[in-house]
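The data are set out underneath:

___
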Amino acid sequence: MTYKTVGLIGKPDHTGTQDSLNQLALYLEKRGCRILVEESIIEEMDRGNYQAANLVTIGKEADLAVVIGGDGSMLGAARVLSRFDIHVVGVNRGNLGFLTDIHPDQIEEQLNLLFANESFVEERFLLEVCVYRHEKLKSSNAAMNEVVLHHGKVAHMMEFEVYIDGQFVFSQRSDGLIVSTPTGSTAYSLSAGGPIVVPHLDALTLVPMFPHTLSSRPIVVDSKSTISMRVSKVNSDSLQISCDSHIVLPVLPGDEIRIHKTQDTLRLVHPKGYSYFNVLRNKLSWGSRLY
């Protein structure tokens, strides 16, 4: 794919991000690219006649979006850019960086591979979550990592039932439930004891949070399933649905939460040499080969 228009997206007021933004802009100028800069960070650019744009405009007009920051920056961009036919790559200026491949010291080297088509595209699906009250839709949003039902207060249990494609699965008293995509399997789900799921697997994981039983375990289901959580009326009124820890939707006792896979996918482009298992070893400090 030829990248003629490139969007730059980053975390405002972050020194490392500013350095990478300016380096990227100079690199893209030399390549003759049209450069769109997310409007929240354009004032931080050193120079250049760049066009300010929001995420929707970048999604519509750019061929490639470069997200500078950590996984949180990528997740925020992903919920918008997944609606468009655009390739997305990340420069890691955060901590773990599961979704941001490029090291700041290798920007030109790695982008050279992308512009030479020495790369491959990986599609990651997202989840849509809808909150219903008396069968009427009250709120909805999207998540790339996970959707979490949890209490508004720390260490408060709740009661709810889980259905998959209309079939009753279990009832539970716990701190909540994490419904995770393969992308999110190395995030909150992992810290709660969920399995690591390779990105191309078409599956969802349901991970209970501190269940009040010894027999409750994570379960992996087909991603085409519709997950329904019905909140018991005996709960207090401070329940929430969290999307990627960025967006919070209020939930009242008696509400139903429905979660399903979206038709949209984020098209992550990886430079040649990328390996998911290398990422796991580096980020999670797994052991190397014995020999």
User: Anything to note?
Assistant: The chain has a mean pLDDT of 93. The chain has two domains: 5-117, 126-263. Residues 15-30 form the longest helix (16 residues). The longest strand covers residues 256-271.
